[in-house]
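The records we work with from here on pair a chain with its fold. A complete example follows; check for yourself that the lines match position by position.
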Amino acid sequence: MEEQAERAVKAAGTNALPYLLDQFTRRTSRWARTLNRLAEQFHASPHVETENERISVAVFGLTALGPDMGPALPTLAKELADPGRAMAAAQIMGRYGDKALPFFREAIKSTNSAISIWLIGLSVESQGSDGPLIPKLLSDPDSEIRRKLVVALSHSPSVFGSPSAAEGLNRALYDSDAEVQIAAAAALGKLKSAARLALPSLLTLVTNSNERLAHAASNAVQLIDPPARPSRP
């Protein structure tokens, strides 16, 4: 059944976009929510399609479209600020690679910190920290974006403790912005033994002239491998 639906969506191509985007963005009215509650309460049969059901249909269809989904990026990007749709929007956009990058950058810059970290984390989850978007964001000219990405790498459950997450954070230790370096050191400390590959970099920072950075690096070494931490003079 799913294969048939996928073939139908691909055959429709970009002509399917208006319907799929309507399914993704349309909010459920108050009367529809009330009707569904009453139907559930009294075990009645009437049922109005819920937002989650429509979003699921849209995610399936937009994913099936592949490259033909491109014109939907601006609409999906607007939904990154909506906690109820950000996850689905980020996952769909993450499949579109470099062309989604400007939209992710704008969303990261414009939304509140919690949602920024969430959607970057979703990008990490869908692509892997060595995927096409993450390295570009790690080297973004805007230090705010780099800093938020580093924080996201330590908050993303699916990459927590993975070698790829530690490698990305290790690269961030060499960032030109000290705040990015400090955030990377703190995140590596959270990874504990999974971040052993970063020990040489962290050990060089323990004596850094920036006291906050040196302290963050020292704490990270203590969490990753306590015996490796240099003794204080």
Summary: The mean pLDDT is 78. The radius of gyration is 22 Å. The first helix runs from residue 2 to 12. The chain is about 65% helix and 0% strand.
